Amino acid sequence: MGHTSLEKLIRLQKKTSNIRNICILAHVDHGKTTLADCLVASNGIISTRLAGKMRYLDSREDEQIRGITMKSSAISLHFTSGESEYLINLIDSPGHVDFSSEVSTAVRLCDGAIVVVDAVEGVCPQTQAVLRQAWLENIRPVLVINKIDRLIVELKLSPQEAYTHLQKILEQVNAVTGALFTSKVLEERAVKEAELEGAVPEGEVPELSGGEQVYDWSAGLEETDDSHLYFSPDQGNVVFASAFDSWGFSIHQFAQIYCQKMGIRSEVLQKTLWGDFYINPKAKKIMKGAQSKGKKPLFVQLVLDNIWSLYDAVVTRRDKEKVEKIVASLGLKVMARDLRHSDPKVLLSAICSQWLPLSQAVLSMVCERLPSPSEMSAERVEKLMSVGTRRFDSLPEKTQQLKQALLAVCGESLAEAVASWVMCFFPCRPLTQEELAQRRELARQRHAERQATSQIAEDPDSASAGGAQTATPTNNTNTGKEHAVSLSVKPAEEEEEKKEHFIAFARVYSGVVRRGQRVFVLGPKYDPALTLRTLPEGCSADDTVPSVPHLACCTLEHLYMLMGRELEELEEVPAGNVLGIAGMEDFILKSATVSTSPACPPFTPLNFEATPIVRVAIEPKHPSEMPKLVRGMRLLNQADPCAEVLIQETGEHVLVTAGEVHLQRCLDDLRERFAKIEISASKPIIPFRETIIRPPKVDMVNEDLGRQQKVAVIHQAKEEQSKYHEGPQVDSGGLVNLTTPNKMATIGVRAVPLPEEATRLLEGSAELIRTMEQFSLFAREGKTLEISQKTLEQIQEFRTRLEGHLQGWKWRNAVERIWAFGPRRCGPNILLNGVEGYQRPSVWQCLEGEKEKPEAATLRDFDNSIVNGFQLATLSGPMCEEPLMGVCFSVESWEMKLAPQFTQQDSSESGGSNEAEASSSSAGGQSRWRGDVTDCYGPFSGQLIAAMKEACRHAFQAKPQRLMAAMYTCEIMATAEVLGRVYGVLSKREGRVLNEEMKEGTDMFIIRAVLPVAESFGFADEMRKRTSGLASPQLVFSHWEVISSDPFWVPTTEEEYLHFGEKADSANQALKYMNAVRKRKGLYVEEKIVEHAEKQRTLGKNK
């Protein structure tokens, strides 16, 4: 197919039913970009000879060097199928786990996906992840099984063995899809049952829910049709391919070929070419039961045998006569220079690209099996519009009416232009007039060469011209052609200071976007209900709009069609298309929704698979360039959806990324593109957490700890206390009593470890806790916060589950007594109110609907001081100033002894002093509460905060302390011969293998392990070096895990002295991590530089 003109593509943009928005998803190195090259070559944008080698959509220099995709790229392609013409907006996404945020953004923009699976490796971890992302966004996938040539050349399988292997791969992919489908159906079933239980009278409930769970489960799955979900070649949603050799086919193509030769209808062949069918030559009929009768299946006989014989003739034996016969029988024309070429792959590609063109097979499958934008489901629209925990039916009426505008994509009835800014920005360097003129001349030359050169006979000059085309400097990536960005020539100094240009990556969901149009930009936290009450009726973006939170107005300066490494300027873009927009960087941070109606809600945020965990502190080499670094980091934050930029309390500028490769890309971008200065990055800042555990029952040599040692420890603690008379009083149960410096208040605090399940629940429910805290804040200020019914149900479920995890006499009524969560009021630590007689509003008041009583407020003058002290204590623990995790602090006594002068002064002002007395639960004295204390922000409040913080720290230190390390899950695919080396690298880096299983039909093993993030830097490189590239790990942040060793441990028993020696100088991993963090933060580290120093003596003179 020749080069398609821009006018034709613009014309096709208006036919919504003939548009296909698709992305290519796969595990790393499964052949996405090579496949994209073949599709791009079909439009004449690159030479077919360079397809698979050029990697056209990998436009960054580091992508070409590393050989992996790091940034999603989009291109618009034209495809003709019969009499219909289609516009295909193709997005190539990365496969590396560090860049899974790019996959999330690509999936949001599309209606369909091409999932690529390596025929040798099969379903890998990232394959499962991309299938899950496609499922969550309600987009339909099709399957391409790539690298089938490896089955012939590398594994040397026979056609029958290859057929069995391909069947297993299909089963693996369908198993992932089936698991996703089952979980969805069971979830919906549970919701329906919950609704039924609420509606059915009490007497009938046992009949519905009594002992029939298995039947209900199967019935729920049987009622739902799932036939369209699975991949099957006879359904036309599977293509078998070798992108590197430029061939691919679907069952439909071979059915068309053989229906004429065999005289069997095409529909029959399409149903029987894949499956347990064989042909009976005597009866000339297709029969079932090939496996039981030992016959060759049709797929092997009619398809694979032919491909295997072609590879045998061309690649293995290089039989010229047989090749000429094959070429003649297929009716192909192969150039003489291809027949004479020393590399057999060149001849193979020349034959296969004509016989089974990959682009034809894949694009025809895309057009037939994937939906157009006009076929978007109502379920997907509602899911897009339901922000956070809000249901669609709880949105304002005007907002709900927009659903019809989104479903009727092609209409302009409401003239709504809604675009979801997903992969918000990619940088674009503007061209000067000289560069534009130079590119214009090059374009003219290339066009003239294409006209002069025929498609069949290409002379060497044209080939070198094609090479010149690929040699375009990579630093011009993502820049426009002659229309793209034209700027007047400026002096060099001014040009350097000119800000970086960004192109926003967007999708139009309804209406028509026009250049120069005024639109509303809706931030992720925008609330349409609040705005509709504020703004006048019929307000548009052209009017003067009053200030509304998370709402801005802007003009769409330039619209672009994304063409890989080029941009084409457009005047308008109809609904259903993907486009680029210039001039939005001042209004959007990472992602936003754009609409001409303020009633439009912001679209739901993206589901990111990877969590940013790797931190580095960044500073400029020359301090005077700090403003450039700050600006560069702001631009990087906009350009990368997963990177986070923050300033720590210490003043350090910190960059948070998803992994080592992602970190390297961000640092390169900062140096070369955004800041354009020399920067120095610290060693990765490893996050840790501090926690406490129950006292261990055995010592370090697994000996049972007797009571004698415990008593010794308590005596030791008392001796230490006696040295400091003003210090905290610690009793044998771990209760810490601390008095403020002015002797006006005494607090008693005890620390208890939370159960592991409760900690995980608190960690995963941060958003709900934040909502509860916001409700309490509004209640204190006398305001009301509207919370949707769905959120209230989730909070109720959270409360029930927390009660289930906190069982036993120690946790009696603990959930009711929760005072606060921390740190930052939503963390995985709890503050309990254990003071008898002290009543305060519950943190669950959003569920109970109770109003704050006025007398309760007077009793709580210093309540916030206690909470703030707890927040400070949990934000930085005593071990190495890292946040606490899984710790419960219980305030068991709180005594107030007020100075007489304050009491007299207050009584004279208020006409009397109201005091409430509360008995302390453990101190045995009387706690006195004054109702008229109003100095809750004075010096005494500060002393109370400091006392609470210190009491929490001492209570924490009274228990066995442990560090918690961030852990990666590590999935490694390796062959049997390098398994030993893989285990060696893992054990050296404190890794722990969870399981190991062999992939059926291959000699590959899948090893699943956990690895501390602290030990992960350089892990992938070392693994590749030690295994000669035969094993490559995928690291994804998983959880926090307690390091078993005590960082403060010293040998105390006789057995420990015998085992570890007097100095116990064997490596203590927890101590090593703790000291490293303390050194980085400038805290005191107890270590001896010289120990047992001796005078050096020589052999010659023994002095």
Automatic annotation (TrEMBL):
Q: Which GO terms describe its biological process?
A: cytosolic ribosome assembly
Which residue ranges does the record assign to the Tr-type G domain? 17-374
Point to the regions of Low complexity compositional bias.
Answer: 465-479, 907-927
Keywords of the record: GTP-binding, Hydrolase, Nucleotide-binding, Ribosome biogenesis
Signal peptide span: none
Q: Does the keyword DNA-binding apply?
A: no
GO terms (molecular function) for this protein are:
GTP binding; GTPase activity; ribosome binding
User: What Pfam families does the annotation carry?
Assistant: EFG_C, EFG_III, EFL1, GTP_EFTU
Q: Which InterPro entries match?
A: EFG_II, EFG_III/V, EFG_V-like, EFL1, P-loop_NTPase, Ribosomal_Su5_D2-typ_SF, Ribsml_uS5_D2-typ_fold_subgr, Small_GTP-bd
List the GO cellular component terms. cytosol; ribonucleoprotein complex
Which stretches does the entry tag as region Disordered? Answer: 442-492, 901-929
**PANTHER family in the record:** ELONGATION FACTOR-LIKE GTPASE 1, TRANSLATION ELONGATION FACTOR-RELATED
Record-given protein name: Elongation factor-like 1
What is the scientific name of the source organism?
Answer: Astyanax mexicanus (Blind cave fish)
